[in-house]
Write the structure tokens for this entry.
Amino acid sequence: MRHAFWLVVTFDAELAEIALRSLRVTLTALVIACLIALPLAALLAVRRFRWRRATIALLNALMGLPPVVVGLIVYIFLSRSGPFGALGLLFTPTAMIVAQVIIIVPLIASIAHQSLRELWAEYHDLLISMNVTQMQKMRTLIWDARRALLTAALAGFGRGIGEVGAIMIVGGNIDNATRVLTTAIALETGKGEFALALALGFVLIALALGVNLAIHWIGQTERDSRW
Amino acid sequence: MVTELFPVTLKGAETSRRGKRLVGPVDLSLDGQGLCVVLGPNGSGKTTLLRLMHGTARLTGGTVQWACDMDTARHHQAFVFQRPVVLRRTVEENLTYPLRLRGVDRKAAKAAAQDWAERVGLGQHLTRRAMVLSGGEQQKLAIARALITNPALVFLDEPTASLDGRAMREIEAILLQAKADGTRLILSTHDMGQARRIADEVVFILGGQVHETGPAKMFFDTPKTPEARAFLKGDIVE
């Protein structure tokens, strides 16, 4: 345990590199996932179309998607014999980002949809009477629900940063290339290097807490008379 | 601007839901001046009639004809709801919202918001969150937001139904000023006192049917139908 703390406080170079890579991969995945999930959630809230209920049910079901299966499917698609094999993305951080995006989009979209649906019920009459366009409705909802949507984003971040199965398969846990905190913890534990594994675990927890606090601070969610 | 929209003519207009007729058939023609009160007891179809005219309730029979096309008519209208709907934003942002939607630049929108907030007595609250205002203040904000685009016509669905006397008086003063500025107002209420105070014209509705229309003075002095007479006498009419 003392050795683990020592590695953290001395800012071990290898540990720092792995932590930064984790953060880069997950934050990139989070941004991409939000760009997909939030407009999708808003669209599901404001627009009535034939497959709407089925889409919502599917998103809810996909929240429990097993990451290992996602990893396997992404692996098949990105492998040399797969449809995107020519891109050479397998065992790169990009492949890990792709897998994380697939895993967290349903989660963010489902949670966001709950918030946006409630807000839409509140705004419906007003926005209809103002004759606003579909795009304006979606923008208004996303903007006015932004603090609630931060929660959805944070849930996505939590799922992404702690993910191990999918990124182990598509990233390969390659040293100095695709090794991230979770895959490194799994590896070091397997090797019996508990000090490093624990140190990595501390960093993982600190990152998760730090990003949560930073987002709350930026969003000023707990400021007086805010929502 | 007023002459672009009016007269509005309803011919056999009706709306039904799940086979039950809520309003209609209604034959009615309104011109573009003054304050028209749609008067009737609760559940008589006042709100639905307003929504039919505004185009937010589905017409299942008949027609609602404006002097211009429906899109243009909607562009020059605003609607104020019984329970004020305020955006989860500041007072200023609520007021600038309809202007920004119409492409007004930020600076001009802010100046207009400041002006309208002063007019309705919310000048001190510009930077406050709208949700923390009182019910009366929220309704004043909703009315100011409706009037800020300078619409030809504003529908008001029982705007003072849940407010105390003071807030009601303030809101009536705002509405009378808007009327004086040339805005056509169509307001629904079941409050006879309010109708007597502010109406120029009355549409009496009961059971989804328009029973009587005419100048307010004539309606209150010499109601033509037995239903209107009973309502004015204070009897319970359904």
In short: The first helix of chain A runs from residue 2 to 9. The mean pLDDT of chain A is 89. The interface with chain B takes residues 119, 122-123, 125-126, 128-132, 136, 140, 144-145, 225-227 of chain A (CB under 8 Å).
